[in-house]
Amino acid sequence: MVFSGHQERYITLAKPRLRIIPFGGTGEIGKNMTLLEYGNSIIVVDCGVMFPEETMPGIDLVIPDVTYLLDKKKKVKAFFITHGHEDHIGALPYILPLFDVPVYSTALTIGLITVKLRERRLLDSSDLRTITHGQRIEAGPFNVEFFSVAHSVPDASGLAIRTPVGTVVHTGDFKIDLTPVESKPTDMGALARLGTEGVQVLLADSTGVERPGYTPSESTVGPAFDEIMRNSPGRVIVATFASLISRIQQVINKSAKYDRKVAVVGRSMIQNVNMALDLGYLHDPGDTIQPWEKIMNLAPNKLTIMTTGAQGEPTSALSRMANRDHRQITIRTGDTVVLSATPIPGNEELVSRNIDNLFRLGANVIYGADAKVHVSGHPGREELKMLLSVTRPKFLVPVHGEVRHLILHGRMAETLGIPADHILIPENGRVMEFSPDSARFVGHVPASNVFVDGLGVGNIGDVVLRDRVHLSQDGVVIAVITLNRRTGKPVNRPDIVSRGFVDDVDDPIIEGGRDLLYRSLQHTHANTSAEPVYVQNKARDILQKHFFTKTKRRPMVLSVVVEV
Amino acid sequence: MVFSGHQERYITLAKPRLRIIPFGGTGEIGKNMTLLEYGNSIIVVDCGVMFPEETMPGIDLVIPDVTYLLDKKKKVKAFFITHGHEDHIGALPYILPLFDVPVYSTALTIGLITVKLRERRLLDSSDLRTITHGQRIEAGPFNVEFFSVAHSVPDASGLAIRTPVGTVVHTGDFKIDLTPVESKPTDMGALARLGTEGVQVLLADSTGVERPGYTPSESTVGPAFDEIMRNSPGRVIVATFASLISRIQQVINKSAKYDRKVAVVGRSMIQNVNMALDLGYLHDPGDTIQPWEKIMNLAPNKLTIMTTGAQGEPTSALSRMANRDHRQITIRTGDTVVLSATPIPGNEELVSRNIDNLFRLGANVIYGADAKVHVSGHPGREELKMLLSVTRPKFLVPVHGEVRHLILHGRMAETLGIPADHILIPENGRVMEFSPDSARFVGHVPASNVFVDGLGVGNIGDVVLRDRVHLSQDGVVIAVITLNRRTGKPVNRPDIVSRGFVDDVDDPIIEGGRDLLYRSLQHTHANTSAEPVYVQNKARDILQKHFFTKTKRRPMVLSVVVEV
What we know:
The structure is a homodimer of 564-residue chains. Chain A contains 16 helices and 27 strands. Chain A has 564 residues and is an alpha/beta fold.
């Protein structure tokens, strides 16, 4: 297999060929956005966000870098969205307003995008177009067919994109689930037909490649919820993702079966449930869903609460409940809390904290793989083999996952007989160029992480993040030095303020620093050496050394010189 | 079961009864230290450290709070150590010098403690005493018998502590492994004998209670390593814990079998391997272990490298190799890297990053549960049931684990017929009092986390940590205001310095803040309102509001007033 890191980097200016460029935040490759470019046309597949890693403190979201797209703005024909998860639609409010082009997707996906754009008052200026599976859209030299795939949100799609160099199949996020819930199965017939027609390039989801075998069907969580609704002595509180409509449906069905009413709690989940009910993607078997206020006084064993916070998000409804900080719901002995999700890497500590606090409040908490209350939405290894066998692509580009997933996916494909040089392992922003009989890497486009922090988009760079990490490690010390402009000597002992460094403002280490600094600056020679910048740097160096000697810590030291 | 959080808090001053007090860092209960107190005597079981959580930035280690022990210093008779892992011995360098008492443990454990104390030049002043399994030590009214348990370090012990109110059994960390490697199995005979004699209180490891069934034996990793050593085309680099002597032995054995020499790389692993060889806990079947320099030029398939860094620790040998920053070893295509460990919660991101980087450098990486290169050292649910059936304790105190593990352990014990009010779920610092026929919670002793940061021990409090977290989120802004002492008005535009807030020092948001502040302070009335503290607070408020309005971020704002 050909790994992008191992090949020469050059840009070719040859005749039009198909270019494919993946974008993604943090470590994942091609997760959030993919560009297809041919001649004077570009189409965009997906437009999502990543959630920040530990090394990005204070950052709200990470969105794809669209420098390249903006440079070629006139070429952009349309956005095609595979499904309605944040990591595929969440960047639309930031990026869509920059381009005057339509967005195509299925009804539920357009519904989820609508909720998002309406909140930002961007709905009226957006051109959203609902398609159905099987439909084909022309966009320049591209012809895009949506086909149904099963995933953890209904109405998910894979794309078959006919281009002048052959058909590109992009799986989107998928699993081969033949018994999904309120959702269509992956259209194996379409995949087989495409395989027969000939697939030039397959871009395939690698997220689950570490897992052997097949991912269990969504319907396998039914029996676990049946037992929970039947046997729990009190209220059942189920936390899952707001977009996991199929899961919400199962909770509603099993609640109804055992005469429980369901209250939906949490803004994003209420919005999504209402939208999915309106569009017919969620069904209420008979007044089961009720506002909390109307049913809060029912017997506890007649109550189910659906809410968000399965990932431990600190401001979510479930985290508030665990911290006795929820406006409406107080956890009490006899409650059963179900975490119907697997913690995303990095969220384990937050999720554990919630589980512990819920147990402390007397709840029974059902969580973890043994509880069988969650299944993955991504394919295991045998499903990926099935996909390859059915589509028989000429070239394979593993996407969605970190580099290890892509490489493992590529290796597995080699065992199925795909030649090593027909498997391309990209990195984000790496340009792949395809002709009818070749595939190669031909350069790079900008693909750094663009950070959203508060109202700011892209105005947070690596220096700011490095400073934040530094500040968090040992805190900050600020020295304010008042210099006599004439003599270049300090007028009095410097002021020192610190935060996050030592407990006590009168700490002898701080006081020692003040004395040392005052003494040292007394001996500064007047004239050039008393330049404020010189004094400022000298003061910083003196204090850094002093603090490190005394504490073996390295706070950030800032010095400000005031001349009077 | 009786949960400490749900009972009245009071201190009793009745006649001598047995008190047991657990201590632990972060979320784990009783993990790092346990006190047993009877009349005028206290013994200490274990003395370990915890590694800091995400909410403790910059902290190196967390050690137990010994306020209570220092208050009763004269009562302290001895330290008894169950095994040589950091979370059971790591705090000895900080705590042992405060008490002039002996430390008892098995030979390998004393060896690991020796390495640690020698490094800190504390060995000569310490009284370390090696015991053998089956031996009994008198310490005031306590009689302490060590018995063998299997764990992921050899020579681990459980303790049977005879006291005037009955026998207390503390399992330490254990699993019921009947085929361990270079290590003794858990002494089921001793446990059965104790059960027959009568166990008053059982303190038992709850870490693995979420796992159904039995934990696989250490010997089950042998076949996986056999295959790896036989089939890998180049060098094999195995990363594991420096104390996992049994694992190191298996790697040595399988390397020798396929004619590979083994180089040990990384300071802590070299120290431990040498010590274990000296004490006879590790065996070299015939010049297999060699210094790196001597074997570095052998054919790659004749080489194994044993190293640390399986947890992604940034300064470990493996992380350096993954980042092309290791002095001696450069990862290349054909290398096989084996991660023989499970990431500790919180380390997942670091471990993933290393795996990705190793793949990028061309290595094959073997990791994860499917690879069968690691097994847990803690008991699964069926082993805990076995322990309860064999020891038949009157009272059960689940320890080692977070509160959810303790509660799940307690519930499981109820299903085995232990009465609910005979199961005590403690928190750290909670005092449990036992008589021959009763058990209850009787108060609290100080048990906060004591932080080690650089040279400082315990001089970092919650305010410092809160400040560090705040600083990491949105950075810091410092305003320096020079006031005319007479008029109370600013002499010139204030200086503003920021770090971790916005990218550019000349950012219009910062400049806007300067202008706004200057204008506002112009209108300060002279006399009382021009007190520096008043101006300082006003400046802070103005800037906080300004920055939040403009950015929706909340940097820490500090203001310093200089009067001239």
